[in-house]
Write a structure and sequence with these properties.
Blueprint (H helix, E strand, L loop, with lengths): L2 H18 L3 E2 L5 E5 L3 E7 L4 E8 L11 E8 L2 E9 L4 E5 L9 E7 L5 E5 L1
Antiparallel strand pairs: 1-2, 2-3, 3-4, 4-7, 5-6, 5-8, 6-7, 8-9
């Protein structure tokens, strides 16, 4: 195989892998990211203290949040805030932050599945 073909293939694989982990617009108006290899998580923040994470499977189909637990670690106005999220019906995990969280907040959510497996979603 010519070197330029091998280099082009390597570049395409690298770019594809990098893009798979970049936040993208979610169906609920938040940022959608991979959470481990089995889940996707969409972080929705609207400038209030309520923070919502919508859970979906690897094919972006909503999954019930029952039995999941999560902790949000977000940066707001240069300060790190931490708070738990609990199942709130449907695919939603909801938590109340100690301060209002602006839309587009950055940070991470640590997720524990009903089976005890852990995953992290970085926003």
């Amino acid at each position: 195989m010519p070197q330029w073909i091998a280099a082009a293939l390597a570049l395409m694989l690298t770019v594809g892998a990098a893009l798979a982990h970049e936040p993208r617009p979610g169906p609920n108006g938040g940022k959608l990211v991979d959470a481990g290899t089995r889940y996707h998580a969409e972080l929705v923040t609207t400038g209030t203290t309520e923070v919502v994470v919508h859970m979906s499977d690897a094919n972006d189909r909503p999954i019930p949040s029952d039995g999941f637990r999560a902790n949000a670690i977000l940066v707001v106005n240069g300060q790190t805030i931490r708070f738990p999220l609990q199942p709130a019906g449907g695919s939603r995990l909801v938590g109340i932050a100690p301060v209002p969280v602006p839309a587009g907040a950055r940070g991470a959510v640590q997720i524990t599945s009903p089976q005890g497996a852990t995953a992290q979603a970085r926003f």
